[in-house]
Amino acid sequence: MSALGEFRTLSKSRGTRAGDGERRERNRDNKAAALFLAPWVLGLLGITIGPMIASLYLAFTDYNLLQDPQFTGLDNIRRMLSDERLAQSLQVTFVYVLVAVPLQLMVALALALLLDRGVRGLPLYRSVLYLPSLLGASVAIAVLWRLVFGAQGLVNAFLALFGIEGPGWVSDPDTALGTLIILHVWTFGAPMVIFLAGLRQIPRELYEAAATDGASRRRQLFSITLPLLSPIIFFNLVLGLIGSFQSFTQAFIVSGGTGGPSDSTLFFSLYLYQEGFTSFRMGYASALAWLLLLIIGAFTAVNFWASKYWVFYND
């Protein structure tokens, strides 16, 4: 064998040993990754995918939790078409989502713009304003809300100082949903913090250049801030819509679990709960759960489709 041949054989041998070492190291990394991912995969299969498949089957059955489910085909779907309380719950939920989410985003953005001006004690203000987001969905705040807006509550006590006799805000069908919308808007902390982080990413040179050209603050807001912040607005909008469609605790506590008065606070999730765990119509409740999933998916899809017309990614 020539010297060149021996060199090639030696290089090939070294390359093979190096390749085996890389493969062994890669296998060790893969095993470690699989070990760390195993709890998440088990949770996904056991807590999410498994119950979803089971609920999809139950959606086509008559099941009361005490007896075996009886397959009924499309009966639950047909029942939805003539269910007046379902129509009422959809109306209440759509009004709540379409009013509360934009209002909350506007309040959060306004406060973020105010805090972005470099006020003193920003971390303190940010923490205080974020606090309602942590407490807003809790049972304690819902109970407090019911007391504040009750017939003898704090709001009416304040109005009485001016000689105004307020109604029982949570017991009046015309105002009950409004109090829940105010509660939702009050939990503006999370989107506000995200807006504030987005505002800090906008290059200051753009504002300086605009000011040099004589652009007013209003023109800078609509020509620089909002376009560059549009991905953050879109992100908060999608999260807000998904979360609002699933709102439950506030309506359950304020209405005492009935959705009253006169079904004026009958959120879709509350009606689903009543059908499943109060009337024990678990099959019909499963069908309602899938309807809610489809509604949220449709709204999210429409938002992603519409985002190409107003979201600016600077690419």
UniProtKB/TrEMBL annotation:
SUPFAM superfamilies with a match to the protein in the record: MalF N-terminal region-like, MetI-like
Superkingdom per UniProt: Bacteria
GO cellular component: plasma membrane
ABC transmembrane type-1 domain location: 90-303
Principal subcellular localization: membrane
Keyword Chaperone in annotation: no
Name under which the protein is recorded: Abc transporter permease
Membrane-traversing stretches: 33-60, 94-115, 127-148, 176-199, 220-245, 285-306
Family: Belongs to the binding-protein-dependent transport system permease family.
PANTHER family: ABC TRANSPORTER PERMEASE PROTEIN, ABC TRANSPORTER PERMEASE PROTEIN YESP-RELATED
Family matches, as InterPro entries: ABC_transporter_permease, MetI-like, MetI-like_sf
Keywords: Cell membrane, Membrane, Transmembrane, Transmembrane helix, Transport
Pfam families associated with the record: BPD_transp_1
Compartment annotation: Cell membrane
Keyword field contains Disulfide bond: no
Bilayer disposition of the protein: Multi-pass membrane protein
One GO biological process term: transmembrane transport
